[in-house]
Amino acid sequence: MSAGPLSSAAGPARARTTFASLAAMKAQGEPIAMVTAYDYPSAQVAEAAGVDMVLVGDSAAMTVLGHESTVPVTVDEMLMLAAAVRRGLSTPLMVADLPFGSYEGSDEQAVATAQRFLKTTGCDAVKIERGGSSVDRARAIIAAGIPVMGHVGLTPQTAATIGGYRAQGRTAEEAVALCESATALQDAGCFAIVFEAIPSAVTAAIMPRLTVPVIGIGAGPSTDGQVLVFHDLLGIYDGHAARFVKRYANLRAEMVSAVAAYADEVRSREYPQPEHGYGMPVEEAARLRAILDASTPPRAKWA
Ligand code: KIV
Predict the structure, then answer these.
(1) What is the phi/psi pair of residue 12, to 5°?
(2) Which residue of 138, 183, 198, 293 has the lowest C-beta tally within 10 Å?
(3) Stretch 275-279: mean pLDDT, rounded?
């Protein structure tokens, strides 16, 4: 994606986020705002709100598709969601999650999946979870010319092997391992790293060792930016909310009451009113009546 100011009827021109502008934000200590989006309207909201980055997270498995974890979402499902998000975005940098099972097997698998995401969705970068073998996968994808965002700490795709959905790095040894994963991802060439559910003190201790932007979610205030799940921050999702979630709205309640009001009005025949229907020229209505009056009324099919 090339940098350049965009103008819109809604407000002053806003520059596109680029990999260079993200690095500059980190250098200048300017916080980076990131949010997830999963479809065209949520992408349009993120665009209008002026966030810097948008993640098509595999959290879609839970927030949009109703699964109990992120594991079941498929590449094809993520591709469809990411393509819709692309159509709603112009300025934020767009990152798409590679889903569980689509990159871990080999460097070849990782590169092929990342290429599919770039070609079919137009995302700017992909995100993969964990250190360990994912560091090699990240290096291979980057060598193929595709920017990669890393993700350490609570990695939901492998929650079963890290003790469930709980904070990571709570002992000094665990925190050192986390630091090693993050620096290995940085050395592999990741342009940014997500820190999820990590004690604030651990994040603060690791930050001086990282030169790439770190985007936190439940990792305290010392990261270069924050990310939240769209449905969590807007109060749309009805499932469990982690302690790091701050709700900025309670849209689910508003949505339920709006749909209930609509159903009530349908049942009471208050909706639709004349202004919700289409008119017909008076003379055409008269002609129609004449034609129908002159014809034999249709008989019931089985009469
Ligand atoms: O899938 C997702 O939404 C994520 C964020 C929580 C970082 O990975």
Answers:
(1) -65, 160
(2) 293
(3) 96
pLDDT of residue 297: 72
What residue's CA is closest to ligand 1, atom 5?
57
Verify whether residue 129 is a known catalytic residue: no
pLDDT tens by residue, 87-117: 999 999 999 999 999 999 999 999 999 999 9
How far apart are the C-alpha atoms of 184 and 200, rounded to whole Å? 21
Q: Give the helix ranges, DSSP H, for 50-206.
A: 60-63, 75-88, 107-121, 133-143, 172-188, 200-206
**Cα separation, 26 vs 31, whole angstroms:** 7
- Catalytic residue chosen out of the listed positions 47, 104, 129, 196: 196
Position 14 confidence tier, pLDDT thresholds 50, 70, 90: confident
Structure tokens at 185: 């991802």
- Which of the four pLDDT bands, split at 50, 70 and 90, describes residue 299? low
| Angle, in degrees to the nearest 10, between helices 75-88 and 107-121 | 40
Which amino acid, residue 119? K
Judge contact between 34 and 227, C-beta under 8 A: yes
Determine the Cα–Cα distance for residues 55 and 67; give it in Å rounded to an integer: 19
Q: Which ligand 1 atom is at minimum distance from the Cα of 59?
A: 1
Please indicate, yes or no, whether the overall pTM of this predicted structure exceeds 0.70. yes
> Residue 228: which H helix or E strand, with range?
strand 225-228
Tokens standing for residue 1: 């994606």
Residue type, 98: L
* Peptide bond just before 272 cis, omega within 30 deg: yes
pLDDT score recorded for residue 211? 98
Pairing mode of beta strands 148-153, 11-15? unpaired
Residue closest by Cα to atom 8 of ligand 1 = 57
